[in-house]
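User: For my dataset I need records formatted as: sequence, then structure tokens, nothing else. Please produce one.
Assistant:
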Amino acid sequence: MKWHTEISVDRLDVDIDLTSSIVMMGSCFTDEIGSRMRHQLFDVAVNPMGTLFNPASIADAITDALDNRPFTADELFQVDGTWRSLRRHSRFALPDRDATLRMLNESVESTRQRLLTADLLIVTFGSAIAHRHIPSGRIAANCHKQPASQFHVEALSVGDITSQWQPLLHRLSSLNPAMKVIFTVSPVRHIGYGLQRDRLSKSTLIVAVNDLCSNQVSYFPSYEIVVDDLRDYRWYADDMVHPSSQAVDYVYQTFRQSTMTAATIALADQWGKLTQRMAHRHSSPQAAIEFRDATLSMAKELAGSNTDLLQRFISLTQ
């Protein structure tokens, strides 16, 4: 007897392995899946332009990267002693304005280089509810706790999303014909404006993504797996908003099965175990050194002649 409805995910037209160059952009759920991929040594850039929730802000960030559009000092403002931009997450916030500017512009350049050479772009839409900054007329990626009077809350329509993303996908394909795209919708519940509005928002995102799918563009049902497969509050964290760690693991395992071969999954699991070993705590410095050296030897054996993998492991576990 089955006690829940299992989501059957077909094999996507994507073949991910440890040599694949991957860019992931979008909501905080991107960080959850991306951290698991990085832990298993996949070559992935996770939210290189910060956490972004609505489709317009994600598209704007990608466009900034493709245009190599630099930030200027007059775009920044101070909050709690740090300099910030409405176009980026608070991750890009430092006490020194010039340092913040450099960090922002370096992210633009590095993301551009990744997008032009990546094998795969994974985009996670979080919400169709956006905050438009009234003085500038632009949709804000992050409001940074600025007065609510400065923003107009609006719901992006399916047409709003597809009219911005269709030409962007065409441009990405022209610049990097080999790159494939996977869209997914975050299962994190954005309930600040009410459950009904959140469900309408998620539905809008799903319909928009369905319209964007093509030969090079696929959809992975993260939202449906949590809402219709797991379908129980025990799969949520204490805030009843974010999926629990076990739920994210379940989504990630389904994602791997739909995009990777059994051999890739097995190899990734081996690297994940070695990465976890490196985080082990020891009773003495000498024991830590010996354990780390032994783990590094195991990593060298597993990497074989692939020096890139070994260097990735060393960089991740330093």
